Amino acid sequence: MSIDTETAARVAKLARIKVEDDALPALASEFNTILGFIEQLQEVDVDGVEPMVSVTPMRLKRRDDAVTDGDQQDRVLSNAPDAREGFFAVPKVVE
């Protein structure tokens, strides 16, 4: 696949990037270089290769999933201008 200057101009327009007309041939060349790299990657046999999350084998730090600041309903609702039956009360806005 080859990218010409018209296609490069269209891609720049879709990306909302202003590219001067004299810079379009260089942009098209860069696109063609990128497509060449992609074609090289498609030739690599990756059958049986496990997907990687990171380039270094690390485990994420984990913490216990425990509730630490719960059961404060009364304190939270004490700041509300209007609270009823354990909930914030707000004015009706839809008829």
Automatic annotation (TrEMBL):
Any one biological process term the GO annotation gives: glutaminyl-tRNAGln biosynthesis via transamidation
Gene3D superfamilies given in the database record: Glu-tRNAGln amidotransferase C subunit, N-terminal domain
GO molecular function: asparaginyl-tRNA synthase (glutamine-hydrolyzing) activity; ATP binding; glutaminyl-tRNA synthase (glutamine-hydrolyzing) activity; transferase activity
Keywords: ATP-binding, Ligase, Nucleotide-binding, Protein biosynthesis, Transferase
UniProt enzyme class: ligase
Protein name (record): Aspartyl/glutamyl-tRNA(Asn/Gln) amidotransferase subunit C
Catalytic activity field: L-glutamyl-tRNA(Gln) + L-glutamine + ATP + H2O = L-glutaminyl-tRNA(Gln) + L-glutamate + ADP + phosphate + H(+); L-aspartyl-tRNA(Asn) + L-glutamine + ATP + H2O = L-asparaginyl-tRNA(Asn) + L-glutamate + ADP + phosphate + 2 H(+)
Enzyme Commission number(s) from the entry: 6.3.5.-
InterPro entries linked to this entry: Asp/Glu-ADT_sf_sub_c (IPR036113), GatC (IPR003837)
Regions that span the bilayer: none
Organism of origin: Thalassococcus profundi
Keyword Hydrolase listed: no
Record-stated family: Belongs to the GatC family.
Assembly and oligomerization: Heterotrimer of A, B and C subunits.
Chain's role: Allows the formation of correctly charged Asn-tRNA(Asn) or Gln-tRNA(Gln) through the transamidation of misacylated Asp-tRNA(Asn) or Glu-tRNA(Gln) in organisms which lack either or both of asparaginyl-tRNA or glutaminyl-tRNA synthetases. The reaction takes place in the presence of glutamine and ATP through an activated phospho-Asp-tRNA(Asn) or phospho-Glu-tRNA(Gln).
